[in-house]
Design a protein that fits this description.
Blueprint lengths: L3 E8 L2 E8 L5 H25 L7 H5 L7 E2 L2 H16 L9 H6 L27 E4 L4 E4 L11 H13 L5 E5 L2 E5 L8 E7 L2 E11 L2 E7 L27 E6 L2 H14 L1 H10 L3 E5 L5 E3 L4
Antiparallel strand pairs: 1-2, 2-6, 3-5, 4-5, 6-7, 7-10, 8-9, 10-11, 11-12, 12-13
Helix pairs in contact: 1-5, 3-6, 5-6, 6-7
């Protein structure tokens, strides 16, 4: 495995980088590799088109225009919402995908490619929650019982990473990095597990720790990623209070799939060190929670 190919594309409000080790010895292999990467990137485009709340044409935004009506949705949207609602129930509503309108009010309302401000034309109640969303598993429909805006930011990118990883599985040795959401397949160019640095939450040029991962996802949620326009905090919200949690600086989760790692990292961040660690332990995933004072809380097998 002497060669490695790296390709980066701006997608889903971040830069998606895919690296494939090997499979470039001849023209046929290089063509197969390029085609595999394009299929993997297409999943990011498809899932973003379906799940973004920043495009009036997306399925998620269309749901907000049909309150009280069962709306047929794609398998992508159904699975993303199904997982987000399950995680909301598991976290007693600390994590909640119905916070879209409140996120808009805090300044998270601009489409990253154009800078255009996007506001949903409805007047939702201030006390909406995941309980106001109904799924029909037989007909694959979603019903919003009250005016609300779904925000799938904590699960959609992980789902895209998972679908991309499925496309790249035949190559065995590859890495997908979508702005902190990672999937590491097989080995690196040296034939060893992939090395993943956990960023110091207060010094972006320093690592707190290094993980060695193969055939697993690694996702990190941190308070340093994006801040609200009104200086009320960062991009992670405790849906119960409408405020940004302050007891955690970052959470890193290792799981078999990225959607689970992504969602659990966000939920654990909101729940705080003690309850967040309990959540990770219940789901049998490895994780590290770091507080603003750099105190560490790790799962038993981390």
């Amino acid at each position: 495995m002497s060669d490695a190919y790296v390709h980066s594309v701006p997608l889903m409000d971040t830069v998606v980088t895919i690296q494939i080790v090997g499979h470039g010895a001849d023209e046929r292999q290089r063509t197969a590799r390029a085609q595999g990467i394009e299929r993997a990137l297409e999943w990011f485009r498809r899932i973003e088109e379906c799940c973004t709340r920043f495009d009036e044409r997306s399925e998620v935004r269309q749901l907000s225009e049909h309150i009280g009506t069962a709306v047929p949705v794609s398998a992508i949207v159904y699975e993303a919402v199904h997982f987000a609602l399950a995680l909301a129930a598991e976290s007693d509503g600390a994590f909640d995908p119905t916070v879209g309108h409140r996120m808009e009010a805090r300044g998270f309302d601009r489409e990253y490619r154009t800078g255009r401000t996007v506001r949903t034309p409805l007047d939702p109640a201030t006390d909406v929650s995941y309980r106001d969303v109904r799924l029909d598993p037989i007909h694959k429909t979603i019903t919003l019982l009250r005016p609300l805006v779904l925000d799938l930011g904590a699960v959609a990118k992980g789902l895209a990473v998972d679908m991309a990883a499925r496309e790249l599985a035949p190559f065995q040795n590859f890495a997908i990095d979508a702005g902190g959401d990672l999937y590491l397949g097989g080995c690196n160019a040296n034939g060893a597990p992939w090395s993943v640095g956990i960023r110091h939450p207060r010094n972006e040029h320093e690592w707190l720790d290094t993980l060695h991962v193969s055939d697993a996802a690694v996702c990190t949620s941190g308070d340093y990623e994006r801040t609200a326009d009104d200086d009320t905090g960062h991009h992670i919200m405790d849906a119960r209070t409408g405020m940004s949690p302050t007891t955690v600086a970052s959470v890193t989760v290792i799981a078999p799939v990225a959607m689970v790692a992504d969602g659990l990292a966000t939920a654990a961040f909101v729940l705080g060190p003690t309850r967040g660690l309990e959540l990770l332990e219940r789901h049998g995933v490895k994780g590290l929670i770091v507080t603003p004072t750099l105190e560490r809380f790790a799962t038993h097998d981390a």
